[in-house]
Write a structure and sequence with these properties.
Elements lengths: L1 H23 L6 H14 L4 H37 L4 H14 L2 H5 L10 H7 L4 H26 L3 H38 L5
Helix pairs in contact: 1-2, 1-3, 2-7, 3-6, 3-7, 4-6
């Protein structure tokens, strides 16, 4: 996270636009990290909140338009090959298909707040041949809402940065211990689930 924060602090608006574009274009950049940091940096630079939302949403629309174009060009066969080659992507892509099948065009808006579907709905909407204008409109609504919440969180919290980092510095040892404990619990649960999955079923 500090690496992303340093990029935003050093390169400002172009870096913010590029990182948000990449996140919406399905690159491994978490919006839950990048958008609040963009809000913090924007507040620190004195950027009006409305301008921050417009810029971040334009970057998001650019990224998601790219995924739509790839899905439109490659269709369902491309997504099927992708799932076979990268099994970890099967779950979010299938979840996006289900969401699109259940809600149609409105799925593009709804998926922006569904973690598994957020990034991959563009590929699915393109593969399902949703009209591009309709896709952009529904995407814009969802992206505006999502970006407003997450960038607003960072933008609002900027005024409390001194207090936050003061408490963090004071209790960082306990935060590290607690975080390590949660990570250990997560790994144990994952290991147990995989072991049960691999156990032969008894008739």
């Amino acid at each position: 996270m500090s690496f992303i924060e340093s990029i935003l602090a050093d390169y400002g608006l172009p870096a913010m636009f590029a990182l948000i574009f990449l996140e919406y274009a399905c690159f491994p950049v978490s919006s839950e990290i990048i958008l609040p940091l963009a809000g913090l940096v924007g507040a620190g630079c004195g950027m009006p909140y409305a301008v921050l939302i417009l810029i971040s949403s334009a970057a998001g629309l650019g990224g998601t338009a790219l995924t739509y174009g790839i899905g439109r060009a490659g269709g369902s066969p491309l997504l099927e090959r992708t799932m076979r080659r990268f099994p970890s992507l099967e779950r979010p892509i299938l979840a996006s298909y289900r969401t699109f099948g259940d809600h149609g065009k409105s799925a593009v808006f709804l998926s922006r707040i569904i973690p598994l579907c957020r990034t991959y709905i563009g590929f699915v909407a393109g593969a399902m041949k949703q009209p591009f204008g309709s896709y952009l409109f529904c995407s814009a609504l969802g992206i505006l809402l999502w970006n407003a919440v997450l960038t607003g969180l960072g933008y609002y919290c900027y005024q409390y940065r001194t207090l936050f980092f003061g408490y963090f510095d004071r209790y960082k040892k306990w935060i590290l211990i607690f975080g390590s404990f949660l990570l250990l619990l997560f790994l144990l649960r994952k290991l147990t689930a995989n072991r049960r999955k691999n156990e032969p079923h008894q008739e």
